[in-house]
Design a protein that fits this description.
By secondary structure, the chain is an all-alpha fold. The protein is built from six helices and no strands. α3 crosses α4.
């Protein structure tokens, strides 16, 4: 019974960790796949080029707050910073960035920037 409980908890823990692509598909694609409300489309190097130059921490923290027509956290109030950051990495990399999944130092920088600015939500 102990082993079953452990395996069940491990399985559900893995399910709760969405990849950047999974988060993109579930949350971001409704705008970023179509360009709705002028959202930069995934894979569009021209639209993403300027954003990529701003840097990973900058665009992740700005997007987490909400920017232009984009709602905070992509409109998903319970989206965590690591999940959001992974989705940004996924989208930026589709347009030519070579960003890594955010490590502890990057998440610390992103959270520091987030704390400095009030959210749109």
């Amino acid at each position: 019974m102990k082993y079953f409980l452990f395996l069940s908890l491990s399985f559900f823990s893995l399910l709760s960790l969405a990849s950047g692509e999974d988060t993109y598909k579930a949350v971001c694609s409704s705008c970023h796949a179509t360009g709705l409300n002028k959202a930069p489309m995934v894979g569009d190097k021209k639209q993403w080029g300027k954003l990529i130059k701003e840097g990973q921490a900058h665009i992740t923290s700005d997007g987490y707050h909400g920017v232009r027509a984009m709602p905070a956290k992509g409109g998903k109030p319970d989206l965590s910073v690591p999940e959001f950051a992974s989705a940004v990495v996924y989208m930026a990399n589709q347009a030519g960035a070579n960003w890594s999944e955010p490590d502890e130092a990057m998440l610390k920088e992103i959270n520091k920037r987030i704390a400095k600015k009030p959210s749109k939500s």
